[in-house]
Every structure is written in structure tokens, then in C-alpha cells.
Amino acid sequence: MTLSDFDRSIYRHTGHVTVPGVLDAAHTQALVHDIEAWGEEFLRELPPQQRAWYLDGGVTARTVLRKLDNPHHHREAFRRLAAHPPLVALVESLIGPGVSVSFSQIFFKPPEGGGPKPAHQDNFYFGPNDIEGVVTAWIALDDATLENGCLYFGDGTNRGPVYAHEAPPDEPFNLQLPAAILALQPMSPAPVMRGGVSFHHGNTFHQSGPNHSSRWRRACALHYVNAGTFFEHPALPYDHGLLLRVS
Hints:
- The protein is an alpha+beta fold.
- It has a single domain, classed as Jelly Rolls, CATH 2.60.120.
- Helix content is 27%, strand content 20%.
- It contains eight helices and eleven strands.
- Strands 1, 2, 3, 5, 8, 10 and 11 form a seven-stranded antiparallel beta sheet that branches. Strands 4-9-6-7 form a four-stranded antiparallel beta sheet, with no helix packed on it.
């Protein structure tokens, strides 16, 4: 599985491209079962001082996780996913051969109130030595729709600069684009059906809305770098020892 020249041109022009059906239904469901079990275990052991980082801040009445970090390191199912040959082939068609996962996340976005994620650029978080050497593979573990909080992208922002981000005083980890910059940039929705993958450039503005539906919107983001790219001046601490070479 590789991207066509047309798909690569879309990626270069808009900063993102979606590929449906990268994972089949059985594979996707197995990943969902794995994060459900992991999430229950993690929530039971979550210390109070880390709750703001991991718990969903939306209007949901339940105590539920917002995310989990580095499933490619902690869970065998996601190590296999990171090295899944069709997925790696797609990544290599965008950033070249010899790729590794530097960081990964699970996003839960629970039904009936899961909170939004403000607009940001991954390359501000990561501070790579080469802005062209990073791509995020955002894998839909449920259908991601307008109603339940799909991603929105700023088309063409991959061809612009990495902007300084800011964060609310009580959420120093929640780095986001300043409102004055975001006001100048339209954002377009990018629904992805379960098992599909949305690839976006590290400079591309992206955000997600709240989940107004009765359905989950779970996803896995794998942040790949090519052989010559590393996080040179990251905005948050990342453990370089978790780098997973997959090709």
C-alpha cells in the first residue's frame, strides 16, 4: 500500500491526506479492546497530581480518560500497529525510508461531552531539526464524524512557519495557537471512518471539536520521523529512549 502521486500532491498542498481502510474491522476491534483494558487499569492507578493531564475536561459527567501516552512502548498490540507494513509503506511515501515512532497517543473523546482539543502544530510541540521529517498518522478506532469530534485542518499551513504557542495558566501542557493567528485561518473538517488513517504534516494547524454524540471517538496518533530527524528543541519533555525503529 502506497500513496499515489495525486495523494502526495494533496498532502504537499494542503498538509494532510486521508487513506481509508488501512486496518480491517477485526484489527481495529482488537485495538479497541486493548485500550479499554489498559485505560481501566491506568485510571485505577492514576495519582491525583496527574489527573489534570490525563482526564477529560469536557462536560461529561463521568470520570474518564482524555488520553494515554506512548502506547507503542507500553502495549504490544500498538508496537505491532506501529510496524504494520501497509501503514509503514504509507508513512515512507511521505517522509522517506528508515522511519521510527518517536511519540504516540491514544485519544478517547467519550460520548456526550468529550472535550475539544485546541488548534496547534505538532512541530511546535516536537521542535524537530527538520520540519519535513515528521508526519502524524492519526488512526480512527471509531468513525470520526462532525458530530463526535473529527479533526479540522488549516489547509496549506504546512507551507507556513511554526508559530509560538501559548497555554491557559491552569493548563501549561495544553499548548495552542494564539487566537489572533487562528482567526486568520479557516479550518476544514476531515471525517475519517473506522480503520482509516489521516496523515498530517507537523506544521499543519489541526484541532478537534467536542463529542456531541452518543458514540465514542477513539483514535491513535503515531508520530513518525525519518532517519535524519529528531526532536531537537521540544516544547515539552519527551523520552528519546522510547524511539521505536520500524523500517
